[in-house]
Design a protein that fits this description.
Layout: H1 10-31, H2 41-64, E1 70-76, H3 82-90, E2 108-111, E3 129-131, E4 140-145, E5 153-157, H4 166-177, E6 181-187, H5 194-205, E7 209-217, H6 222-235, E8 243-247, H7 263-274, H8 276-333, H9 342-352, H10 356-362, H11 369-375, H12 379-414, H13 417-425, H14 437-459, H15 467-487, H16 493-510, H17 512-548, H18 554-574
Parallel strand pairs: 1-5, 1-6, 2-4, 3-4, 6-7, 7-8
Antiparallel strand pairs: 2-5
Helix pairs in contact: 1-2, 1-18, 2-8, 8-12, 8-17, 8-18, 9-12, 9-16, 12-13, 12-14, 12-15, 12-17, 14-15, 14-17, 15-16, 15-17, 16-17
């Protein structure tokens, strides 16, 4: 009976909890992405996907529909006679044997008509499209309803496990992983081949129910070869698996052996179909073994997810280190006189002059009113030119350092294979500064100069009504404050005299104490704004890394989910005597 239709007895609560636990385990696996090309990650990605596929293709659907027919997948080596065996077991042709086509490419599923509901698109291997006609399309599965197959069992003809076509081999592995029971077919000529035994070892490791068929064997050799094969099975953990011998025989035009050749296998399958308890035992053995192996396979993925987080952290550290270096250089360059050259120095010297303005301000204004008015003629226009030059200089400085930081960070990332991967996969050029950095720099510098005007206006007190203050004006004092901050304590020689005039100008108008306070606050504000600009650039740079990394606790969440499922499996095993399962 399906778990969704059972009562609330102890074992059924455990079954419901197991289903919930497995769904959470699948979610934890999906969250544990492994996007970075770390050493060995390709195999781990495949490993992780195999576990997810096993959960989605078999374990979870099977637990949700325990009443579904026993899915018997007929697999094995090339030329072992699988399709002929399937046709003979069913009693008529349902799948084309190898004499009619090179190999089975799309699987063929034969089932009783009353069991068709169990094999819809939402159940067994949901990625395979259901069709009702023969096809060689790898993405399809042909459903063949026939009353020749007893209710309660279904027989699926799978591609060769050792096919020369990789897609066939992959599909064969998927189908065997979705099976309740393997009917594994080999032949006298192929039973020692390594590839089939690799699959059988996997079956033994996960406690999958297996029956072996020794096919296409001369009648006189069946007993001898079967004895050797049985010893090989025992040595590989399959001593309790049934072994059937099928002697060579004439294949009819319909692709069938004489019915007597498979009578023993047919009787065994019919007995299983009639015995719900035996079928359930096989299902529980296979599901339980699958769960046991799956939980073990989760831990390497959890470790790999944490390695991805460490690698992302290392990449982030590399970026932060480069941006910290460049940011410090930017702040230094913005306050050591580096900008006091070229157009800015020319505009500043035009504004401050050779000292006439300062001498006029320092004089007793009442006696030199005419001299003061002459000194400030044209100063407002000159102050605006200084402001524009400050804006241009700081904008250029910020962009240059943004470009430098991006180039340095890109070089650091390209020194690692996974860092180069992120750069190449980014949607924008990470070797360059952000496209909007120049616009943001202009906006910040303009905001800074506006802030300086507000600062001068609010912190000047009663001085705002003085002739000296009015003579220079808020704009003039703000650009003077900006230039003094940009000049620093040790300006270039070419700018030192005019910068000293600026310092004296501030101190003469607002007083030495207020001038010092204004310089400190203006410098702090500039540092904050420039730092924020490069911090935003750094955030832009590491954003691709943040998008690639797994969830912070992905590894531990995966381990926790696996431990929970394993605990439930163990508890269910302990309850076997009272109706528990798994």
């Amino acid at each position: 009976m399906s778990t969704s239709h059972r009562g609330k007895s102890g074992d059924e609560i455990t079954g419901s909890q197991m289903l919930t636990g497995l769904i959470r385990l699948r979610g934890a696996l999906q969250a544990a992405a492994l996007p970075l090309d770390l050493p060995g990650v390709a195999a781990l990605r495949e490993h992780r996907q195999q576990v997810i596929d096993q959960l989605e293709d078999y374990v979870i659907p099977r637990l949700m529909s325990l009443d579904a027919p026993l899915l018997t997948v007929v697999g094995g080596s090339t030329g072992a006679g699988k399709s002929t065996l399937v046709n003979t077991l069913v009693g008529h042709r349902v799948t084309a044997p190898g004499v009619l086509r090179p190999t089975t490419r799309s699987p063929v599923l034969a089932h009783h008509p009353d069991d068709g509901k169990w094999f819809g698109q939402d159940r067994l291997l949901p990625d395979l499209k259901r069709v009702d006609h023969p096809t060689n399309d790898h993405d399809c599965i042909q459903l063949v309803p026939t009353a020749s197959v007893p209710k309660g069992i279904a027989i699926l003809d799978a591609p060769d496990v050792d096919s020369v076509e990789e897609r066939n081999r992959i599909l064969a592995g998927q189908l065997l992983s979705a099976a309740d029971l393997w009917l594994f077919v080999t032949s006298a000529a192929r039973y020692s081949d390594q590839v089939p035994w690799d699959y059988l070892k996997l079956a033994a490791d996960r406690s999958t129910s297996v029956a072996l068929v020794l096919d296409r064997t001369p009648p006189e050799s069946v007993e001898t070869v079967s004895g050797h094969l049985a010893r090989m099975m025992a040595s590989r953990g399959l001593k309790d698996s049934p072994l059937f011998g099928v002697a060579e025989g004439t294949v009819s035009d319909d692709g069938l052996l004489p019915a007597g050749h498979v009578a023993e296998i047919r009787a065994w399958l019919e007995a299983l179909a009639a015995d719900a308890g035996a079928r359930n035992a096989i299902v529980h053995q296979t599901v339980g073994g699958s769960i046991r192996i799956l939980t073990r396979r989760v831990y390497p993925v959890a470790d790999a997810a944490e390695e991805q987080l460490v690698a992302i952290g290392d990449l982030t550290t590399l970026v932060e280190r480069q941006y910290d270096i460049v940011s410090k250089h930017l702040l230094t360059s913005a306050s050591d006189g580096t900008l006091l050259r070229g157009d800015l120095l020319t505009r500043w010297q035009e504004f401050v002059g050779s000292g006439e303005l300062l001498r006029s301000l320092e004089a007793k204004v009442g006696f030199v009113r005419e001299r003061l008015m002459n000194a400030i003629k044209g100063k407002p226009q000159q102050a605006e030119r200084v402001a524009v030059a400050i804006e241009t200089g700081l904008e250029t400085l910020v962009v240059e350092h943004g470009e430098q930081a991006a180039a340095r960070a890109a070089a650091a990332w390209r020194a690692t294979p996974y860092g180069a991967q992120l750069i190449d996969a980014a949607t924008e050029d990470l070797t360059r500064a952000g496209r909007d950095l120049r616009r943001r720099a202009v906006a910040e510098v303009q905001a800074w100069q506006s802030e300086l005007q507000d600062l001068v206006r609010s912190e000047s007190g009663d001085v705002r009504t003085s002739a000296r203050f009015l003579a220079v004006g808020v704009r003039g004092l703000a650009v003077t404050l900006a230039v003094v901050v940009l000049g620093g304590e040790q300006p270039p020689v070419a700018a030192s005299d005019s910068l000293r005039l600026g310092v004296r100008l501030l101190e003469t108008v607002v007083g030495p104490g207020t001038a010092g306070m204004l310089r400190r606050r203006a410098r702090t504000s500039l540092d904050d704004r420039l730092g924020a600009l490069l911090a935003a650039e750094r955030t832009r740079y590491v954003a691709p890394a943040d998008q690639w990394q797994p969830t912070k606790d992905a590894g531990e969440n995966l381990r926790t989910a696996a431990r929970r499922v394993d605990d439930l499996r163990y508890a269910a095993t302990m309850q076997k005597g009272t109706g528990g399962h798994l």
